[in-house]
Amino acid sequence: DGYSQLSAYERKRLKNITENAKFFAALKLDKSAARLHQIATKSQSHATKRAKPKKAEDETVRRRSMRLQRVEPSGVPMPEMPAQPEAEEYPQVPAGPLPMIPEDQMENSKLTEELLTTWMRISEVLLVTITNVLTMLSRYQCSLNSMGLSEDNIKKVVKYRVCSMAIHPSESIIFVAAGDKSGQIGLWNVSCKSEEGACVFIPHSSSVTCMHFSPCSPAHLLSLSMESLRCGDVTKAVFDEVCRSEENLSSFDFLEENGSTAVVGYWDGGVAVVDRRTPGTSSELSADIGFKRTRTVHVHPVNKQYFIAAGSADVCIYDVRYLKSNGNKPVSSLKGHTKSVASAYFSPVTGNRVVTVCADDKLRHNCNTGRWLTRFRAIWDPKQEDCFVVGSMARPRQIQVFQDTGKLLHSFYNIDCLSSVCSINVVHPTKNILVGGNSSGRLHVF
After folding, report:
1. Which CATH homologous superfamily contains domain 98-127+138-445?
2. N or C: more exposed end of the chain, with fewer CB within 10 A?
3. What is the pLDDT of residues 200-253, one digit of tens each?
4. Rounded distance between C-alpha atoms, residue 81 and residue 439, angstroms
């Protein structure tokens, strides 16, 4: 048949591309359909033979000690350990624009069309400016107490550990995006109560560590992995490539309200400025800020020339206007961290506060997640200037809300529905909605 030399994965991918060209043509996305046809016709010539994986049933059954089975000699099960991800090779995604085709759309083309149409519709309607409304602490606590979790609002959206999330600002529909460690991005219309309602795309080849809907056009979902920063544009049904680098990327944030420029962090400690309006996928400026590692970058909500970077044990604020290749000095340094810092974010209204998560447990808060869980990131509630949300290792499993004084205001938990650690969390900008993501790709919506 001309494709016998392809692996099972490549044959499945080629079949999906060919069949889905018809779907995009039906949506009158001529360029996407043409691109799909081009990929389909060229895939055969670039195919390489791969060794077939050994089937599990062909392997001999091995004896496992009681230690490996996590059972005490007395027969009592040992304490729960975080689930370890399967050893699997993730597909490598090519550079350049990618058609917005789900991983397995063969049986769900109608669902995909409905999901993307919903995303486009709620983005077109949302033209009002989102404002932060401060409420009294007592009223805020009442709103937290009114939020709950049910089985209907739990769904496995991506295959592997959740590394980032973004929530659409729509006030009519709960629409969430999640990125996992393999490069998958799952879109979930929580308001759709059917068994389905979610689609998975693979626009990246490694962990999707940061995602944001564009502040001025939520029809654009920007996602970052080690190799690239992409913009999922539902109006074009394409994941455009904004920036690609040979150095590993770690995080990004918008420098302007229109979302046209962004500051990007590198795992090796540097930062870069990216302009989405310029052609090509190179950054406008790369700067050494003296960090050994940069995990997160975040732009001040009012004075957008300032951004904060968090690294090994460093938390510093810089002025983007004075960045240069080398010799950059911070405007301010936040001292006191003695161990690795996972994140640092300005408070949402004034930016006068900064919340950080560090392995030194300064809130008497267990942040030691181990290697199989995504590191915690404390995020401010966009609706409350002095309150933030963070995951917890406490039992029963829960997501906690603290005041900036360190006072615990509320714990979100449900013994029947939540039995795992939610390392990554996101809060809706205007509604009382919290989403927590765990290490198996499940999202929990309170």
Report:
1. YVTN repeat-like/Quinoprotein amine dehydrogenase (2.130.10.10)
2. N
3. 999 999 999 999 999 999 999 999 999 999 999 999 999 999 999 999 999 999
4. 12
